[in-house]
Amino acid sequence: MRTLIVLRHAAAAQVPGLADRDRPLTEGGERDARMAGETIAGLGLRPDLVLCSPSARTRRTAELALPGADVVVEPDIYEAYADELLMMIRRSDPEVRTLVLVGHNPGVHQLVQDLTARDGHAGFPPGAFAVIEVDGEWAELDGGRRVARWSPGER
């Protein structure tokens, strides 16, 4: 069995004149990213690999939530649709047992919905994550069981 954790970047600041890719996390976003990491660790999950969008807010979220993890910046995650994210995951090394994808809405939320066939949660706010258990190889991924979901508002 494999575990996929889909993590949306934490809350980012709106800074006039700053490119979207360069937006930093807010103070609350930094706190929420740390809390997401504590929650992931509390579930006994330790990532083998983190695929992360190149934006400043996703990289900082990964840094705070998953300190010491092997983070690979994947430029195509930025603005990716769910099907594109799924293709990236399918290319993961079979040796990876626990994979984290740090990205953006609407792609990450739709990915979780597509993989788990669940529509019970209307949103996937900044800092939210879902844990999906996956049978089989990454290359064959087409669904899984959502075993956990967390967002900053659920403290």
Detailed description of the structure:
29% of the residues lie in helices and 21% in strands. With 155 residues, it is an alpha/beta fold. It has one domain: 3-Layer(aba) Sandwich (Rossmann fold), CATH 3.40.50. It is globular and about 45 Å long. The N and C termini lie far apart (29 Å). The mean pLDDT is 95.
Q: Strands, helices and their partners?
A:
Elements: E1 2-8, H1 27-42, E2 49-52, H2 56-65, E3 71-73, H3 82-90, E4 98-103, H4 107-116, E5 129-134, E6 145-150
N to C succession of SSEs: EHEHEHEHEE
Cα separation of the termini: 29 Å
Give the C-alpha Rg: 14 Å
How many alpha or pi helices?
Answer: 4
Examine the secondary-structure arrangement and name the CATH architecture: 3-Layer(aba) Sandwich
Helix content: 25-40%
Weakly predicted, low-confidence segments: none
Major sheet = 6 strands, mixed
Q: What characteristics describe this protein?
A:
155 residues, alpha/beta, Rossmann fold, 4 helices, globular, Histidine phosphatase family protein, His_PPase_superfam, His_Pase_superF_clade-1
